[in-house]
Structure formats: structure tokens, C-alpha cells
Amino acid sequence: MRPGPTFWQMRDYPVWGPALIVTFLYGLLALFGFDQAREEAINATISAAIPYVLFTGVGFVIGGLVLGAVTHTLARQLGGTGAWQPTVGLSMLIMSMTDAPRLVFAVFLGGENPLVQILGWLTWLAVNGAVHIDGQQVARPAVAEGAGSLGDPAGRPAVDHQAGHDL
Taking the model in full, what pTM does it have? Predict the structure, then answer.
């Protein structure tokens, strides 16, 4: 896993298509990861189950958009200079993809199964341990740092995407 270099490589590209599709599919499956909701969806008629599943998928997309917007706002408050679209898209993908292994087991075993719980914690620990944020780098204002000094390993200059120019 190389989340740091991947983030720096992808921070300039909006990933709306994959983010929306993956988060929607995750939401469709997430319904079946909850014991009671899975039973209700399976025992319901098809005409009642389809809207239930679709609304869950849409709900996860809306929730992912809100959490992505919060992530972007928090990053800006901490001195980040990334654009809104890539930050939101990447946060939606990270949210969905990091929990996918746990969700696969939860669909078949149920969310309360001890194996599913342990897998969820192990996934969280693995992702949490793989991401390193330098507190000093985050705490300093981006404008004071100058071009190329925001921690980008490739040395690319920081770009204000809303204004369309280098900082």
C-alpha cells in the first residue's frame, strides 16, 4: 500500500465517475451487511425491496459527498491547497474501498459476527498506520511555504485550483 504517493499523484484529478459508482455500489451492498436490514430486504416483496436497496445506495452517495466536503473544509483549515473535486472524490473512494473487505464478510456472516468485527478493526488499523501526515507541514499556512514545498515528492508547485495559478 502506498497511500501517500497515490494521494500526491491523484490530488489534481477529479474522480467523480469512479467515486460515485463505487460509493453507490458500496451502499447497495452495505444494506446486506446489517443483520436486521438484510432480513427485511430478503423477506420483502421485490417491489418493496428494490426502492429500499436503491435509497440506501443513494444515501451512501449523499453521505459520502457530505463527508468529502467536510474533509476538504478541514484540510483547508489546516493549510491544504487541494481542489474541492479531487478531495471529495478521493475521500469517497477511500471511504468505500477501505471498508470493502469487511463488507464482503458482513454480507454473508452479518455485521455482528466476531470475525467481521475483527476484520473491521484490522482494516482500520492497517489504513490508519499506512497514512502519515506530518503535523508541522499541515499546521503551516500553504502560502508561506512557496512552490513545491507542500510535501509533494515530485516537487510540483502548489496550485490554487480555484484561481488557476501557482501559489
Answer: 0.70
Q: What is the pLDDT of residue 123?
A: 85
| Tens digit of each residue's pLDDT (9 = 90 or more) over 60-114 | 999 999 999 998 898 888 887 778 888 888 889 888 988 888 999 999 988 889 9
Q: Name residue, grid cell 490554487.
A: 160
What are the grid coordinates assigned to 38, written together? Answer: 438484510
Which of 131, 145, 14 is closest to 79 using CA atoms?
A: 145
- List the beta strands (DSSP E) in the chain: 159-160, 165-166
Dist. CA 20–CA 37, nearest whole Å: 23
Q: Which three cell numbers stand for residue 30?
A: 452495505
Q: Residue 154, Cβ neighbours under 10 Å: how many?
A: 8
Cα R_g (the chain), whole angstroms? 19
